[in-house]
Input
Amino acid sequence: MQENKKIGVLFVCLGNICRSPSAQGIFQHRVNEAGLADYFDVDSCGTAPFNVGKSPDPRALIATEKFGYDITDQIARQIDEADYERFEYIIPMDRKNMMSLTAWQPKGYAGEIELFMKYHPNNCGMTQIPDPYHEGAEKFFPIIETIEQASEGLLSYIREKHGI
Output
């Protein structure tokens, strides 16, 4: 990472309309609350192209709003090669997306690609953020709580690593 470059954190799921935009919004909120917005570049994307240009899933909008987060301005996009230069931390929600991200990473990528649940303080044996897309709206609420806790852990990890 270059000097004076913001710390790039990219959240990734399959379609970029449920989990990763929620994670982006929650993590950005935590960063802002900590007064660290000037240090971070936070974004999200999907590994698949089928939702490019779409807004987050209405159920994700409702769930994040219930917890006090606003993700209405986010627009789905697909990961591209430039993301590996821009983001030091690429955070997939599940193993399948992690496999895709590591397979596509350019030779010499010096950042970290780690499952989001690695940073959850009490993951209860979970290694992935479950995809609620094919579930009912009620499945989104516990996902938001899990993302909140993993966001706290990730922010603490980055703050310690970078001394901020």
